[in-house]
Amino acid sequence: MTLMHATRTAGLATALVALLDAAALAAPADDTARWDMLRDMYFAGRPVEDAGPLLSLEAPTRAHDAALVPIRIATAPGSDVRVNAVHLIVDENPVPLAAIFRFADGGPQAVETRIRVNAYTNVTAVAETSDGRLLKTAQFVKAAGGCSAPALKNPQMTLARMGKMKLNLPDTLVAGQPVTAQLLISHPNNTGMQYDQLNYYYIPAHYVTTIAVRYNGAPVLDVQSDISLSEDPSIHFSLVPDKEGTLEVTAEDSRGRVFKQSWPIRAAQGS
Amino acid sequence: MIGAWTFWAAPALADSLSADSLTMVEVAPGVFVHAGRHAETDAGNEGDIANCGFIIGAEAVAIIDTGGGPAVGRRLRDAVRARTGLPIRYVINTHMHPDHVLGNAAFRDDGASLVAHRNFQAALMARSSHYLRTFEDAAGADAARDVAFLPVTVTVAERLEIDLGQRVIELVAHPPAHTDNDLTVFDRQTGTLWTGDLVFMERAPAVDGTALGWLRVLEALSSVPARRAVPGHGPPAAPWPDAAADLRRYLEQVVAGVRAVQKSGGTIQRAIAEVAVQERPRWQLFEEYHPRNVTAVFAELEWE
Fold this sequence. Notes:
The structure holds two protein chains of two kinds. By secondary structure, chain A is mostly beta strands.
């Protein structure tokens, strides 16, 4: 077998219970004190409203892999809410702020990423609207150990690949029509909490701190990120292609290393 | 072989932890295997959930995996002593997973060499505190008290022959597959290939290395001229290479299914819901391992 319980997920009991409640949506846990602290830390002095139906956050109720928990945040389709930025907060993680996504286009937004979850926690999204409001939604996620889990992969391979990027786009693109693009950046994103007992030290934190996505020179997305993003950070974002263009990504990590890659993108002429 | 297993399975059912030694099946002359249960570790089974056993030569004994807890290791040692007084010179771990190594401590006083893949020690020590905590949670603090992670004394980089006295066993270290430290043991005399967890039968496999690498290693192993394999989980022995057929089919379906979902822009969630679900009735503990396997393979294949 099996290191699944030992290292990264919550264990047999949870795996079995997951069968029973996988379909149930997890309402956020009512931990007002924790949230008040986080609100003061990240949004000092500003009111944070309940987003209601304007903002959604999709997350698995129980994660299969606490070091790789997919999260999707989207504004309600059809609503006229205009969002400039989304803050993703993993309430119980040692560094709760996982990422801030800043969008150049203030329209409806959807963004997706993968996070580490260190303990049962609320995962909170706070959207900043173009008129300055803060809208909050949250969901409870059961997973544990995601920050201290050793990487699954062969460590040599991970290092050899560091900084490489991939861009996934649909096979057919039409100019002017938005598509969902996926950006992957190969990086160990070490949390600083992964203990190497062979050499008796904590593997130092080493993670992607900023990601800038530019299309034909214009900003599309700027991400400020921290240790809660999973190894090999993955981000799905919305892109509106022109007939021809170039997407350029610049990422920087906590040791000041800069990674750049660009892709030509061609789209069919829109009607 | 199958007949022998059926015959021996009856007493195994009546076996309890109060018995002195593990129930062993002699799958070939001098090759003894205990088949672990298809369950997760709990206080009742104390980690007896993986296959383990030993090979007796003319001069020495080699243990191959020690079971998933100190009590299992002790009972495995008792099973050796019930059959031979020859020294236990080698304890071989096929990989670092706890259900195969937590019995190691039982052999501490035998002065045996601990033999493993060259990546084994790093992989185990990176996870040992998790393994210990999880074993404590599952089996209880009393059962966990004797857990010890003994240092590897002989590492295998590629290939190593060990002479047990008129009986040479051949150890091969594999590239990343089930884990990054899989080791097989081939007993030439009887044509018995101990695969460790490179072969799962009956119990759902866990992908803790690379699915593509695992398929490559299984392909390479299929040409080993073995009569039988001792899988890491499943019956004590099964004909080779047929023993790996179910696992290969499972891994191929997971890989193909995840690729298809990725090609159509699908998410991990969708892959978990759709990929290889037809395999569910064929494996025990499927729900405990399959969704996580799909998640791991999804992340792996994104970098193809």
